[in-house]
Amino acid sequence: MLPVEIAITRFRRDLTIAALLRSLLVLVALACVLAGPVFGGGDGMFILMIVGVAWVMLSYRSMQGTRLAADSPSLIAAGEFDRAENHIDAALRSFSLFRTAKLLSLHHLALLRHAQHRWRESVLLCQAVLSQKLGNLHGLAKTTLLLLADSTLQMGELKGAFDAMARIGRHRLNLAEALTLQLLQLDYGSRIGAWESMLQGAGVKVQMSELMPTLNAARCQALLSLAAYKSGRLELASWLRRRAELLADPKDIASDRPALEEVFRQNN
Questions:
Q1: Are 122 and 113 in contact (CB under 8 A)?
Q2: Do 94 and 61 form a contact (C-beta atoms < 8 A)?
Q3: By CB neighbour count within 10 A (0-12 exposed, 13-18 middle, 19+ buried), where does 261 fall?
Q4: Residue-wise pLDDT tens digits, 5-23
Q5: What does residue 118 show for φ and ψ, rounded to 5 degrees?
Q6: CA nearest to 100, candidates 136, 60, 131
Q7: C-alpha–C-alpha distance, residues 80 and 1, integer Å
Q8: Global pTM?
Q9: pLDDT digits over 38-86, tens only?
Q10: Distance CA 191, CA 196 (A)
Q11: Region class of 249: left (phi > 0), else alpha (psi between -120 and 50), else beta
């Protein structure tokens, strides 16, 4: 298994080397362009052609790393963690002239560690990605923040989860991201006992939960059921609990979230 600290160190080293190399190639190209009119001769154009060829070759090698990184999410989703780890390791080891491939590879490693329930390592990787200037990579920033929020929640670090969710709120979210954030907010609310806040707009939250993957939809409605039960709204709590039970086994719903066991004990 790839040690997280080594992956982060390699990631930062490679970004520094790539930035220096890009700067060197650009400076040499500019020097050739500016020196041509001053000194004349064809040497400048020849060197400029060499720089161009070097740039194209290095860009091609960078594309190979990008293709390796692109395969990782589908492997993680399929549960093929060992193959995903090998792809990510190869992508991190490969040379890339551009930052995007390395950022994606480290993000995918954070996604893998999250899927493996290695929460602390996922947090460290997310923080490493977010410490970089992501520029136009808004999508990467949002998904990394969502990973960070969930990982810190699972570790019981509520302040870290709150801060991550607050940062997510500054971004414009698509539907899938909004659904993920809703589940995170309900999970966070259940951990701090914000029952009334969880039930605000409950009807809309139930409708949105119907767009989630089955287990997440069940957990969302189970969390709302818990909030209703804690608020004394027993009829609503029972209705939401039954909806959750229709979607998934209570043991699966309550896995990693022991507080939800209380919801299903109400049926006994």
A1: yes
A2: yes
A3: middle
A4: 999 998 999 888 888 888 8
A5: -95, 75
A6: 136
A7: 14
A8: 0.85
A9: 555 556 677 777 877 777 777 777 676 677 777 888 899 888 999 999 9
A10: 13
A11: beta
